[in-house]
Amino acid sequence: MKAGRKNLRRACDEGAAAALADGESIMQFLTLRGSNVIEVMDGEGVKSLALFPAKFQKSFWIKSGSFVVVDATGRDQALESGSKIACVVSQVLFHEQVRALQKSGDWPTVFKSTPNEGSEMNTGTNCPG
Hints:
Layout: H1 3-14, E1 24-32, E2 37-41, E3 47-51, H2 54-57, E4 67-71, H3 75-80, E5 85-92, H4 95-103, H5 115-121
Parallel strand pairs: 3-5
Antiparallel strand pairs: 1-2, 1-4, 2-3, 4-5
């Protein structure tokens, strides 16, 4: 394993996403739009496209509904200039990191309801009649 991927895994294992830096925000992954372009939704419910860097592609797999930390410093300028990709994923959040951010005040109010609540209601048997 190369040093870059080893350091990437080590940083994620340490839980480095306890606090957000300036210009970073939490977004929810919606769909894959290409090889390294994903559709995300921010805390205000606005959908946009984000770049999923190559350093994450063979190290982390994300599912629909997963959360990522996105560097959106030039988001408004990119959208005004006509670029479709507005931000870049800087970190993939794991379950423990999501829980830590929910307990702190950094979690967006749109994401307060977890997707697991809806799936628990639909766990009945699929018997006709």
